[in-house]
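User: quick one, sequence for these tokens?
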């Protein structure tokens, strides 16, 4: 099962299928220590665990997979002896999804509306919007686009129309994500 979920430094403690046919896995982090959020020093003095969080992960054999994890907390000896919850590389706090699942949602957005993605991936509209907002820039960096204009033209004399034409040609490549185009046109 650990091979199937393909995440670093975790161990599965318990796995079961709930009444809806979803796999619920309780996992622990096998990584030791973290960096103090106050002074940045590496710390490994245990101080219990954070709250349980539940994260949607990639499906296995068509079944939804949810990981339940409590990350270890560590205490520092710097001023105030603050505690810090370990951060792991494979999920962003408060996102509700693993990074692998977020990437899958973004891929599902290609040539689809957010409403399509909610049906395909069985997640709510708000959650899909949250993933898109976290991962895709909301504003256009026009200066970067202007730089895409061929070098032999003086960028200061390039008309807005020319920039827009270059933008249309290069936008897909530039942002590497067609759902950005969807958002621009909606
Ligand atoms: Zn510290």
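Assistant:
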């Amino acid at each position: 099962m650990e091979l199937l979920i393909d995440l670093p430094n975790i161990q599965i403690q318990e796995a079961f299928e709930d009444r809806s046919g979803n796999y619920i896995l309780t996992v622990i982090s096998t990584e030791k220590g973290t960096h103090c959020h106050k002074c940045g020093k590496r710390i490994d003095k245990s101080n219990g665990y954070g709250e349980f969080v539940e994260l949607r992960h990639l499906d296995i054999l068509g079944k939804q997979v949810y990981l339940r994890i409590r990350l270890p907390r560590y205490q520092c000896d710097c001023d105030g002896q603050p505690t810090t919850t370990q951060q792991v590389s494979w999920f962003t706090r408060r996102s509700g999804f693993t990074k692998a699942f977020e990437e899958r949602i973004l891929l599902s957005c290609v040539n689809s509306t957010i409403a399509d993605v909610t049906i395909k991936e069985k997640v709510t509209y708000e959650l899909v919007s949250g993933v898109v907002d976290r991962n895709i820039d909301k504003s256009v960096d026009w200066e970067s686009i202007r730089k895409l204009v061929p070098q032999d033209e003086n960028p200061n004399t390039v008309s807005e129309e020319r920039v827009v034409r270059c933008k249309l040609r290069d936008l897909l490549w530039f942002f590497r994500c067609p759902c950005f185009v969807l958002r621009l046109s909606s």
